Every structure is written in structure tokens, then in C-alpha cells.
Amino acid sequence: MNNLRHLFYAVIACAFSLVVLVSSTQATIDNSPASSTSEEGACLTSISTNSSNMLYSIILPTYNERENLPIMTQLIHDTFTDAKLNYEIVVVDDNSPDKTLNVAQSLQSIFGKDHIKIVSRAAKLGLGSAYSAGLKVSSGQRIILMDADLSHHPKFIPEMIAVMDSTTKKVDIVSGTRYSRGGGVAGWDTYRKLTSCGANFLAKFLLATGGASDLTGSFRLYERYALEQILPQVKQKGYAFQMEIIVRAHKSGMKIGDVPITLSIAFMERVNSEQMKLSCI
Amino acid sequence: MGLLRRIDPQMTGLLRYQLFLSIGILFIGLWKASITRLATIQKTLSTSIDPSTTKILVIYLPIWAIILLGIYALSSVLYKVATFGDCPEAAVELSGQIEEAKQKLTKQGFKF
Q1: By the CB < 8 Å criterion, does A15 face chain B?
Q2: Is B96 domain-assigned?
Q3: Which residues constitute the domain of residue A101?
Q4: d(CA A100, CA A110)
Q5: ipTM for this prediction
Q6: Exposure string for A34-68, b = 16+ CB within 10 A, e = fewer
Q7: DSSP 8-state secondary structure symbol assigned to residue B85
Q8: Are residues A186 and B91 in contact, defined by beta-carbon separation less than 8 angstroms?
Q9: How many domains is chain B partitioned into structurally?
Q10: Residues A33-45: pLDDT tens digits?
Q11: Which domain holds residue B42?
Q12: To probe the interface with B, which of A80, A185, A214, A254 has the most B CB atoms within 10 Å?
């Protein structure tokens, strides 16, 4: 009787290890056509539009960014002019009490309507919907999502574009990562680093993310079709929003690239410090 | 995790809970088997490990596994924190560029 039971357990153990192996090999077979079609799609866009003629849309959701927005705009303008790339900035303002909207309008008169587009919303409606609203107005084939508070420096955008243009490994999303060599943060205390690393470790352990190294970062370059596909599905808010994008992208067979970035917090902590602590880890 | 990635490099094949479930059941099966065959294990290890120690090792196997997992998690998070790049020079560079940008904007007629 005892032997029989022992045999039974051994069979269960073997069966399950088989299930793991078989379904994983099947999955790789199943996934290869899906990923190759997305690669084809990506190749088509890069062939049909020369990357130097391509328009890059930068969506900047703002709330009380009156001081940061002009500087951000100037930095973006300089970066893209130096790299000889076309850009448009889409400012999505949620009725900021500090009249960020007026600042955006005067920037529009300086840089031109083709460089700066404005979406003005009646109330704070959340980051996800701000990106959707910005995406609708934008017309670039590639979209950059970043924070308008100067914590993300536009100088990394050309590096991200270079990764996306690379023909050796076609990627649909390029994520700025603080964890790689060359990346990092300025002025974070150990506690905050611990929160960030802990959250990223937990997410990477529990979720399938395809090896993206910074899941909670919010500085990323997307192919337009990638963002159009994923954004409507995302339900989470705050840093979990950024995680969900990566998880969903990975699930639908998209490839994710990495570029090391450094994070500065020159102005960030002063404005909305409570909210920043939550949304930026 | 490295092993898992080798089995399924993309990690898209199984949903994560299915993966955890199969590993868990595999583990429970092995554990139960080694409890029922405790005497055999004790006999084979008796030259190097005391039978009572073997008994403790086998019976509390899930606890050892959890402790090992905890050590792995803690050490990898602490390693990440220790190697987290600090870049005060980025903040310095930025504050210089902020001044530059302000001058450019003022030149173009922007009022701060």
C-alpha cells in the first residue's frame, strides 16, 4: 500500500514537470508567428517612413508645472534640433490652479502650433486618461511619454530612438531604466531606493515581464501602434500603471528595449511632494 | 528564476500562477515522497548526517524553502539598492541647463 502511494506521488510530480516543459515549448512555438508579425509591422513602418522624417510626439501631462514646462519645452526643442528630428509636444493640462495652461499657450505662440499642441481638461482625470487624450491629438508615428517636472531629461530621447532604429533587434517599446549601468537617480535616500528596488523585484518575481529592467519608470518611447493597442487595456493608476503597460506589452508579444537614464529631482519634490512619492518609485 | 527563464525564455507560455502552482505541487510531491521514505534517506545519509538532523531537515522542508526564498529576495533587493547608481552630477548638469533654457526663452520673449 505504502509503495503504491509513493508511486502515485512520483507520477504526479513527473506529470507536472512534464506539463511545465511541454506547455513552455508549445508556447514558444505559438508565440513565434505572433512576434514575427509584430516585427514585420515594425519593419514596414520604419521602411515606409525614413526615421529622420518621422514625427515624434511627446505627451506631457501637466498639473501645476508652470515653472517646469517652459524649461522642459526648451530642452526638448534643443535636443530635437541638435538631432535633426521632428517633434511635437502635446501638453495635457488638467486645469492646473497655477495656470499652466496660460504658460502652455504663450509657449505655443513662441514655438508654433505644429510644435506644441494643447489639450485642456476640466479636472484632474488621471494619468492614463491624460495619455489617451494626448494620443488622440498627437500625429507622430512614435510616442514618447515622460514627466514634465524635469525629472526626466530629454537628452536620452535620441539614445532611445537609436535603440528603436537598430535593425539587429526590433523593439516596440524602449524603456528608460535607472537600474542599468550608466543609469541612476540623483538625491534619493536609501529608504526610497529600497522602495523602488523592492517594488521592482516583487513585480519581476510575480509577473511575466520579458526581462525589462525598470518596471516602475515612466520615461519611455513607444511605437504608435504599441501604445494604441495597450493604453485602452490599462486599468491601474500611479506606478502600477507603468508596470501594467510592460506586462500587457509582453503578453501581446511586443519586444521591449532598455536605455539607461538618470533621474534628477531639481524641482520635483517641492511641488506635489505627497503625490510624487506615490507615483514615482 | 534563472532556471525558469531557461525553461521558458520568454515566460509567456504559462501564466505566472500556473507556473507557481506546478512548482508548488512538484515540491509537495517530492516532500511527501521523502517523508514516506524518510528511513531510506536517513540510512543513506547516516555516514555524514545524524539521522535526527535528517529528520528535522526533511520534515520542515517547506520552511527551509521559504527561508531560502526570503534570503534570495532580501539579498537581491539589497544588492540592487547597493548598486543603484547615484548621479548628483546629473542634477548639477540640469541646473546649468535650466539657466541656459531660461535665457533662451527670455530672448524669444517669454515672460516667467
Answers
A1: no
A2: no
A3: 40-279
A4: 15
A5: 0.78
A6: ebeebbeebeebbeeeeeeebbbbbbbbbbbbbbb
A7: -
A8: yes
A9: 1
A10: 333 334 444 444 4
A11: 2-87
A12: A185
